[in-house]
User: Fold this.
Amino acid sequence: MSDFPAFRRLTLIGIGLIASSIARAARVEGLATEIVCATPDADHRARALRSGLVDRAFADNAEAVAGADLVILCTPVGVMGAVAAEIGHALEPGTILSDVGSVKDGVVRAVAPHVPDGIHFVPAHPIAGTENSGPDAGFASLFRGRWCILTPLPDGDAAATRRLSDFWAAMGADVELMDTRHHDQVLAITSHIPHLIAYNIVGTADDLEAVTKSEVIKFSAAGFRDFTRIAASDPTMWRDVFLNNREAVLEMLGRFTEDLAALQRAIRWSDGDALFDLFTRTRDIRRAIIDAGQETDAADFGRHVGDDT
Amino acid sequence: MSDFPAFRRLTLIGIGLIASSIARAARVEGLATEIVCATPDADHRARALRSGLVDRAFADNAEAVAGADLVILCTPVGVMGAVAAEIGHALEPGTILSDVGSVKDGVVRAVAPHVPDGIHFVPAHPIAGTENSGPDAGFASLFRGRWCILTPLPDGDAAATRRLSDFWAAMGADVELMDTRHHDQVLAITSHIPHLIAYNIVGTADDLEAVTKSEVIKFSAAGFRDFTRIAASDPTMWRDVFLNNREAVLEMLGRFTEDLAALQRAIRWSDGDALFDLFTRTRDIRRAIIDAGQETDAADFGRHVGDDT
Assistant:
């Protein structure tokens, strides 16, 4: 239980992996007196209520935000503009409106026009997640030791930013401030391109004729299976990420394919030194990530497979 | 302890991750009366002897194989031909000569010319490993529940193939037979291309100016860090893999970049359906890998990071 002064009512729009983790963490740390959610999925509403994730669950977004002093959009980024249009009139003055989208510039462009005066819109993005989706996938410690990036608007309210920052810190996150465009560039390389190429290679493998699908599955421990974890992430969320961060993704993808063409050439012309140089310098980056506490140093992620065989 | 009739003397050329795991597993299961190794690295010899991995350790490869009835080449594939040339004359008739290289056609072409009559050359490739290297990185259970592919030569000795197959099975591996070229195609997609693109994206990230290296490290939990594990693998081993499986790697890489270009186009033209279709079908492959016992179903590989914060 933190000493954070609780919000009166926290409304989560959507109740997937991130929202259900926020609900759990906010509950554990006592960050909101009441937690409610909105989702069109009746089954998700029933599950969220039954498991005690939320106190009330609504089908209608505007009804759900009435009386809330913190509203967090936890839907795919592609629908956040439409949700903002629905709830804008129902938000009470002084309410903090935030989101958890993996893209920030596109979200601000879609949401900001629907935010009335007196509402404090503070975009946010917790860098945390797993490959699982839905209200049962969340857990209270998801944000612990992870970064949460806030991208306050140039004319945003400093007190609201501070309050939201404290909220994320109370859930265990380290908070960083950034402008929206820089956020989108950083995430393009640390997240969006890795997801794109993981999806892509799994698709390429699925299409082969010379190698059967059962062989790809059987021998996946050779490296391929790491990529399938990322390529098992929520399809709607990721479609929206790519459609809403097009510019930064295409820019980073251009660099990636340029570098890959150079590697391809090194292989074709047996340039062993070029390969060795790259393969050596990439080791240092992993060491730095482990030293920064963002990764386990256990071999193979510490995963245990086939222990029982 | 298995009921496998032990080899008289097992000689491992090299004592890195795979060789030291074989030594440990062979010890635990009683698969060889004596285990010796050869490596030019005096420190590795001392460590292998001190930890009881091997009974004797040699600097000279030919000395190490004298009296052995099973010799396994555990060096990078690029030097296997030279090693074979050194030890060929010292091998005793009836000895089984094998290897653990990630490429099979190139190894056979390099090694086979140096194998005298009466020696049974049976190429092998255990699909197991971690991102760590060296004699201390190995562990006895590395091969348990993993596949080991044997690629016996068309005119190979069936009894020798069976004996080597039993040896791997006694260490816990499931054994599969394949021809060398098909092996190289399967591994190109399940292993070589995943490694190549992991190395490549880590290199691309390292070269950015708009995003600092410290930002890449800080926010790596968004997906990037998964790739750094693979890109921390042994540089010499992987340089040799690409130089020795050029044909299959370039063929698979061509397909990968073609598919990536199609994805790039879908993003540029906002073709959400194309993205969604791919992102949906890739989920099934991961499910199948988990069902096949080749992967954990724990979220995020079951890794725990930041638990102590």
Q: What stands out?
A: The domain at 7-178 of chain A is CATH 3.40.50.720 (Rossmann fold). The longest strand of chain A covers residues 7-13. Chain A touches chain B through 116 residues (CB under 8 Å).
